[in-house]
């Protein structure tokens, strides 16, 4: 099983950078996970709800530790999100195109996390699973 297949076997997901604006990739990724039947939680410190779901300020604020994390944030924010994900035990991280940060990737891999940071887009992958 490859890294993407491993990511997609997760039971719970969080989306860092989820947005209320439907044209933004953070919103599209969140909706795609929901449409694919995944249990997903939006992360955005500036929003109270996204697509009718409570939004959480950070991973630590979630009601559970998600198995997987999709990141759609600027790289400087990605570093912070990944550090928090490592500290709470997230197993899979997918840095969407533009969110990649080499420092964060290295730290996550050293922590034993399955990391996808090769420019692959979850929207493309999920479209193929429908």
Question: What can be said about this structure in brief?
Answer:
The chain is an alpha/beta fold and 130 residues long. It has helices at 3-8, 25-35, 75-88, 102-110, 122-128, and strands at 12-16, 39-43, 49-50, 53-54, 68-71, 92-95, 114-116. Strand 6 (92-95), helix 4 (102-110) and strand 7 (114-116) form a beta-alpha-beta unit.
Can you describe what's shown?
The protein is of the alpha/beta class and 130 residues long. The protein has a single domain, classed as Rossmann fold. Helix content is 36%, strand content 19%. The protein has 5 helices and 7 strands, in the order αβαββββαβαβα. It has helices at 3-8, 25-35, 75-88, 102-110, 122-128, and strands at residues 12-16, 39-43, 49-50, 53-54, 68-71, 92-95, 114-116. The strands form 2 sheets. It has a 5-stranded parallel sheet, sandwiched between helices. A two-stranded antiparallel ribbon has the order 3-4. α3 (75-88) packs parallel to α4. The chain is globular and about 35 Å long.
Write the layout of secondary structure elements.
Blueprint: H1 3-8, E1 12-16, H2 25-35, E2 39-43, E3 49-50, E4 53-54, E5 68-71, H3 75-88, E6 92-95, H4 102-110, E7 114-116, H5 122-128
Parallel strand pairs: 1-2, 1-5, 5-6, 6-7
Antiparallel strand pairs: 3-4
Helix pairs in contact: 2-5, 3-4
Feature tags:
single chain; 130 residues; alpha/beta; Rossmann fold; five-stranded parallel sheet; two-stranded antiparallel sheet; CoA-bd; CoA-binding domain-containing protein; NAD(P)-bd_dom_sf
């Amino acid at each position: 099983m490859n890294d993407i297949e491993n990511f997609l076997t997760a039971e719970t997901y969080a989306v860092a950078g989820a947005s209320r604006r439907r044209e933004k990739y953070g919103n599209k990724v969140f909706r795609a996970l929901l449409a694919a039947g995944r249990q997903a939680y939006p992360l955005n410190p500036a929003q109270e709800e996204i697509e009718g779901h409570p939004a959480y300020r950070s991973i630590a604020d979630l009601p559970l530790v998600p198995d997987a994390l999709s990141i759609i944030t600027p790289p400087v924010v990605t570093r912070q999100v990944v550090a928090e994900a490592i500290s709470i035990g997230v197993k899979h991280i997918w840095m969407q195109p533009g969110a990649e940060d080499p420092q964060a990737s290295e730290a996550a891999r050293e922590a034993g996390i399955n990391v996808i940071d090769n420019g692959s887009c979850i929207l493309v992958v999920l479209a193929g699973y429908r």
